[in-house]
Amino acid sequence: MLPGRVLVIALAACWTAAPAHAATIQITMENLVISPASASAKVGDIIEWINKDVFAHTATAKNGDWDVAMPPKKTVTQVLKKAGTIDYYCRFHPNMKATLTIAP
Amino acid sequence: MLLRLSAAIVAMTLISGAALAQGAAKPTDPQIAHIAYTAGVIDIAAAKQAETRASSKDVKAFAQDMVRDHEAVNKQALDLVKKLKVTPEDNDTSRTLSKQAADKLAELGKLKGADYDKAYVANEVAYHKAVNGALETLLIPSASNAELKSLLQTGLKIFQGHQQHAEHVAATLK
Fold first, then answer.
1. How far apart, in whole angstroms, are the C-alpha atoms of residue B159 and residue A42?
2. What are the chain B neighbours of A94 within 8 Å (beta carbons)?
3. pLDDT digits (tens, 9 = 90+) for A46-81
4. What is the ipTM of this complex?
5. End-to-end CA distance of chain B
6. What percent of chain A has pLDDT above 70?
7. Which domains does chain B have, with CATH numbers?
8. Are A27 and A50 a contacting pair, CB within 8 Å?
9. Which pTM was predicted?
10. Is B131:B17 a contact under the CB 8 Å cutoff?
11. Distance from C-alpha of A50 to C-alpha of A55, rounded to nearest angstrom
């Protein structure tokens, strides 16, 4: 009985606390450079992809998990849904490369 | 394969060796602006031909990327020369580049289907390689205005990206 109630309370605490834990992480593409080149996040976090260039870019996961298109001078948001260490690049300019580590 | 490779080398030597070596007597900023702009116009013309002639979906998409990026770079170049009150100056390098590009366009215009796709993409690899070499060794070091130099450096990164993109597309056509 008691452990059950503790579990419910614990779950409730998690649910109410969860949104506060979701962080927003900014990754910028400027002058054909992705910064930071290496970033860390958690599942549920939001990535704000900021394209400061007049060129279109993409953030394309090498493993196929995601492919985010960024029009020139636009910011695009993405909610991270899957954990993993993701190497990604820009499909239009494959010399733009970076890594995003997503913890479960 | 050997034929394609030697064709690429010929294309490279033609552009970097002949055309750009003529400007080796350190081009001025108005000449550099003209050469860089001309190089962009050439690639846009090649891409527009590819948008109608290419049969592969990837090659068509690549051509669209080239039009979009090179138009964006050239718009920045025009804005910059206006701001700096520099009038781009025609020169032998620009003229040779344009002449070679016109010949190449005519040559590619005779090809069809997969032959066209391969030849266009191979030329894109060679052309970007040659332009990147010229930017690195001649145009960027010769530019005296800091903003022009910085735009050329951005251009170099963009074109290095295009070269890699073209190499990826070329690999899918084999």
1. 34
2. 161, 164-165, 168
3. 999 999 999 999 999 999 999 999 999 999 999 999
4. 0.81
5. 10
6. 81
7. 28-172 (1.20.1260.10)
8. yes
9. 0.82
10. no
11. 12
Bridge partners, residue A25, by sequence: A47
Testing the interface with A: which of B71, B136, B153, B157 to mutate, by most A Cβ within 10 A? Answer: B157
Domain ranges of chain A: 24-103
Q: Which CATH superfamily is domain A24-103 in?
A: Cupredoxins -  blue copper proteins (2.60.40.420)
Task: Indicate the pLDDT class of residue A5, thresholds 50, 70 and 90.
Answer: low
**How many CB atoms are located within 10 Å of the residue B48 CB?**
15
Residue B165: its chain A contacts at CB < 8 A?
A: 91-94
Question: Quick one: how far is CA A42 from the chain centroid?
Answer: 8
**Cross-strand pairs, A65:** none
Q: With contacts defined as CB-CB under 8 Å, which chain B residues touch A91? A: 165
Residue A30 tokens, joined: 């400027």
* Residue tagged 């993109």 (tokens): B165
Per DSSP, the residues of chain B read -HHHHHHHHHHHIIIIIIIHHHTTS---HHHHHHHHHHHHHHHHHHHHHHHHH--SHHHHHHHHHHHHHHHHHHHHHHHHHHHHT------HHHHHHHHHHHHHHHHHTT--HHHHHHHHHHHHHHHHHHHHHHIIIIIHHH--SHHHHHHHHHHHHHHHHHHHHHHHHHHHT-
